[in-house]
């Protein structure tokens, strides 16, 4: 059902936890659907210096959060905003079709964290255009399956 | 790695004696029970012996037991067959919201044929209300179908009372006894059961075999048309080897019922007590006492069931869950929602079902493993830290 990479990131998740005095915190998903992701970022000189996550959800939700933090760690904010859910899926070696929304959630949680940072610092990023952290990103029905 | 199977309600291993019983029917006694020759007649004799054995375990006459390909077929046959054969009487039936999909989806299929179905609610223990049942009966009600024991939460319904209510109004009563058979003493005539579905692979027999008990005189239409097998009621060459295994398994279950139940209940209580004592924020599901002897169903708050199953699997433990991610849909199991659990609690459900090969050591290992796994997942959960830190 899951690739070895998914199982590895589920069993040994990277960057779990929280960052005290984080520069940005984003949380997406809802309990009704059974997955919530929260991402903390520490920003230094427009670079994501540290990133941590907490996730309530299934194996792929946890694995997607974990690998997303690895993809993003050390990136500039502009580059981090370019990370897509497809990259998360690819890095995991694929996800079952019904679990693709977990990768979307990871992308959205990161954006929400950067949005929070932007709000606090009064900065604007092109990559955040049109992003509304209050949208229900975990509406599984709207997720279009991507090809890979 | 240690391997612990705690999913006996999903299926059971076939007992060695059962396999032994089956083997000759693949090679030496392989005949088609419908054939005139000796090969066929030997198979036929075996088949009828098996039928009598299974009938004896439910205190029924031998010729009221019909072999099927399993519990789902039996449920389909009983419900579709009775509703279609009794249209002159009416087009209404009653069931409940926590039935197995083999019953619920059959009812939904019948609704498309114009059958009216009442789905009774259950209380927070998973019990139907006898008052509500009485109130739901109409002059056009043909059938009541209520499961004996629920497969997820283990709750046992008051079968005898339901049968009595049905009969007082001239309504037929079918029960899906797939989880009950082999775990509870069943006497179909004393209990007033008109039709009953049972399955072999839940009682240490082979998969792909089941039976439907049909009380004499019940009007029922065929589901599988074809040859004249099963007194022209269920076509298809009989799975003699499977049926022989089923009969052997049924006999073992019947003969050792008391010891089996006692063992399971002891281990079940040990497991439940262990879980409740070592983990907080746990909810026990199903009726506290009127339940399957080997079923433990709990919800761990703040974590999700699939993640729990995968983590337990990594420790060699096989269980099951009613979370959305394991149900193949977006919602948690219909049973957990019907007993009133909110989605977020239902997502963290775990069903562990104990069987004849479970040991005390297995139970103790599982309690320890659960403690670790739940803690690990909660440390990752944004819901748990809200509770912990009041954040």
From TrEMBL, chain A:
Residue ranges annotated for the NIF system FeS cluster assembly NifU N-terminal domain, each copy included: 1-122
Pfam families cross-referenced by the UniProt entry: NifU_N
Superkingdom of this protein's organism: Bacteria
Gene3D superfamilies hit by this protein: 3.90.1010.10
InterPro entries in UniProt: NIF_FeS_clus_asmbl_NifU-like (IPR017787), NIF_FeS_clus_asmbl_NifU_N (IPR002871)
SUPFAM superfamilies xrefs: SufE/NifU
PANTHER family tied to this protein: IRON-SULFUR CLUSTER ASSEMBLY ENZYME NIFU HOMOLOG (PTHR10093)
Record-given protein name: Fe-S cluster assembly scaffold protein NifU
Record organism: Fusibacter bizertensis
TrEMBL record, chain B:
Catalytic activities: (sulfur carrier)-H + L-cysteine = (sulfur carrier)-SH + L-alanine
Gene: nifS
Positions annotated to bind [2Fe-2S] cluster: 325
Entry keyword Iron: yes
Pathway: Cofactor biosynthesis; iron-sulfur cluster biosynthesis
Coiled-coil parts of chain: none
One GO MF term attached to the UniProt entry: cysteine desulfurase activity
Protein name: Cysteine desulfurase IscS
Location of N6-(pyridoxal phosphate)lysine modifications: 202
Organism: Fusibacter bizertensis
Localization (cell): Cytoplasm
Cofactor field: pyridoxal 5'-phosphate
